Amino acid sequence: MDLIILALAPVVIVAAYVYFRDKYEKEPIRLLVFALLAGALTVIPILVLESFLSDLGAGLSHYQSAAWNAFAVAAFSEELFKYIALYLLIWKSPEFNEKFDGIVYATYVSLGFAAVENILYVSGGGLVTGVMRALTAVPAHAIFGITMGFYFGMARFYHKESRSLKQKALLFPILLHGIYDFILFTGLAWLTVVFVAFVVFLYISGLKRMRQLSRISIYNTDYALLNEKLSKPE
Question: Transmembrane helix: is it a keyword of this entry (predicted)?
């Protein structure tokens, strides 16, 4: 039981942080729970696709195998189904009415997947694994979700660029996720420094994207309130 709490604690903390960063129009708890559940359920098709792709990469050399498993098996499979879940959940939802909402829902979908994955890893690896993943893997999944949601949120409102932005919403998380896993899968000791630097980069880039869309949401809210005030008769 203690290990399950340890596995879920970072998920709850990140979910709460993202929720409270959405300052002007909180998303319905019901939809956020659905996003977490949708992310958790993606584990099933992901495992099937990962098994198939893993078999295709059998016989590769060490570094080729590390690249294949990082970018194709893990990053592509996981981010693809997270994206599908996100799209089906909110693309046509009336609740998706701000760019920042893309970040909120994409992060919650990612955290739903991360919760299941973390329980599996921590149950087998114990306390040390739980602490390490709380500082690296869970925030990384959240940041992959923030990256996805950043472009997904803009795609919903920038209609002329919607197609290219939706492509970026899938491709950029795959790229970041693949780099993250490749560094781990190579098993090279000197890459530990690179790994730490990359995790720091993920933190900074994720927070930057959140601030950027948060500022846009604040501007849009203030602009709408101003228009409403000006439209009222004296």
Answer: yes
